[in-house]
């Protein structure tokens, strides 16, 4: 159990926000901490979660999305995000998890699936012993202001622009 948790935000247009949160989760599970990892929007299976699922009861992955959203989000997209936020808040307050990761939560806010005020309130409601990790491009200023640590990953160069597609084991 953590004596003092913090709020971390991984944002920016560079690759590696989810990977950073996964790395932190692996480290935490290795230390005997319990991790609740909520993914918003994403539905694609990823190799890192197959590995984490094999670690047993210290890691819980839940997905609350219907896939990448192009254009205006549907009511079903909004309901999935709201259900995810509600479940993640329950996990955070349950005393069952030391770390709660909300992957792509910033994107969910920027798409209008959730309000940044809801996330700021979640931060305020966070028990002191829970580490809260928020990932995704475009973190709103009020979320950044409420966080203890903010890391911005900036794309300088990406092989995607050369036509190299996402590769299993590297991007997913």
Quick tags:
alpha/beta, 172 residues, Rossmann fold, 6 helices, globular
The CATH H-level homologous superfamily:
P-loop containing nucleotide triphosphate hydrolases
Which range best describes the helical content: under 10%, 10-25%, 25-40%, 40-55%, 55-70% or over 70%?
25-40%
Low-confidence stretches: none
- For the record, the count of structural domains works out to 1
CATH architecture: 3-Layer(aba) Sandwich
Arithmetic mean of pLDDT: 91
- Beta percentage is 15-25%
The third-level CATH topology is: Rossmann fold
- Taking strands numbered 1, 2, ... along the chain, how are they ordered across the largest sheet? 3-2-4-5-1-6
* Global geometry: globular
Count of individual helical segments: 6
For the record, what CATH class applies? Alpha Beta
Number of strands: 6
Structural class: alpha/beta
Distance between the termini: 30 Å
